[in-house]
């Protein structure tokens, strides 16, 4: 079932935003991708074409033809002006994990977009009730939490705020299914299920390393070999982005006051030194900072 969503606005074209934009476009939706500079948007279009999970890799694997790839590209427009999103039926926000930044953007969009437009946030853990309070559309505000890389990962954690309507939940659920995702619905709480779960695991791994019990590579190796995890906690951290993890853990600790969620100094030290993970504009992540050359 296709739904009434045709035009999707994506705010933020970074690690998650460009992958979400590509996924929507691949499944036939018109996408308008917004960021603060045209340079960032051009980089994102470059990653959509030639990134590790981009269209070129799909052509190489014979999953799509060159012509289909061009059709996908033609469905994506870029803009630095939020007003160009005024006719979107759905907004998916993927800017950094900062409550005030997200709130300001939603507040602005609330005035620009039609009242039927659905607002979804890809926040990793900020409460949906908190973000929706910046708008006048609680019933049409929802968490649509994708996983990295969005082109590949199947789960969409749908977060139902206290005011989110049943219609909005059903629509985002059916929309996710049209993109061959597996939607799971959860109730609003800091970190929802997935981030609360993974955050405590990551923080504990950082502390075990800080206490000198085992090295970074060794912790990653043990996590994979003992438990069958596809990635260890440090590899996963470098992929997610250490700044994102720091923001999430600070927010989770502030909200829940559970010391298990508090970020250790090590994480803050790396982020402040410009080591924010394996992404553009960063000096690298844990592996680079500690000079570990092992294959991840
Ligand atoms: N990285 C992950 O693995 C992951 C997974 C799930 C959810 N998330 C969440 O997704 C969101 C985005 O994370 P990311 O890793 O893609 O971050 P990122 O830093 O890679 O990208 C954020 C993008 O937003 C842009 N931006 C900043 N201010 C903006 C503004 N005012 N208007 C428009 N664009 C703006 C930045 O220029 C950047 O391109 C965060 O809330 C994060 O918690 C991240």
Kindly report the average pLDDT value. 96
Largest sheet: 8 strands, mixed
How far apart the termini lie comes to 40 Å
Shape: globular
Could you say what the CATH architecture of the largest domain is?
A: 3-Layer(aba) Sandwich
Question: Whole-number radius of gyration?
Answer: 19 Å
Features:
alpha/beta; 2 domains; 46% helix; binds nicotinamide-adenine-dinucleotide
Strand and helix map with partners:
Elements: E1 7-11, H1 15-26, E2 30-34, H2 38-50, H3 55-60, H4 66-74, E3 76-79, E4 90-93, H5 99-112, E5 118-121, H6 128-132, E6 141-145, E7 155-160, H7 166-178, E8 182-187, H8 194-210, H9 216-227, H10 233-240, H11 242-256, H12 265-272, H13 286-289
Parallel strand pairs: 1-2, 1-4, 2-3, 4-5, 5-6, 7-8
Antiparallel strand pairs: 6-7
Helix pairs in contact: 1-2, 8-11
Bound molecules: nicotinamide-adenine-dinucleotide.
Residues 11-17, 34-36, 40, 94-97, 105, 122-124, 146-148, 240-241, 244, 279 line the site of nicotinamide-adenine-dinucleotide.
